[in-house]
Amino acid sequence: MRLGFLDSFVDSADEFYLPTFVVEEISAKSDEACQAMQVLIDSGKIVTRATKLTLLANSLNMRLGLGESEAIALGIELPCDYIILDDSAARKEAVRLGLNVKGTLAVIKKLQVDGKITIDSLEQLDQELVAINFRVKRSLFDAIFED
Fold it and tell me: Could you list the residue range(s) of the whole structural domain that residue 120 is in?
């Protein structure tokens, strides 16, 4: 959201779901990202959804954050191509449960490859990620974005 790529990402005929708790986390901040997300929710480009698999979400929440737990439960509940998770423990759990997982950087790379966004400078993108407290090892960043 804070990098300005979300509009390009959801600009398709696919359905995009956001767990209710994640929406609550974003809304609590009342910042520009919150406002941008609300516009996408109001327009129907992103659908807010609570999982019906509350026992699974609660069980996962003993080891993972509530947003990650609800996302994984929702990914199991709904037919989906993949879920987006950046937290390492959540990614491992989602894969263990049979979900296809992508991270934010893989999504950004796909947007670039598909011509939906232009990245003028990888150094600048890396600095923007640092500025929004998105933590990633530089070696992983370089591996994802090397041509």
Answer: 105-145
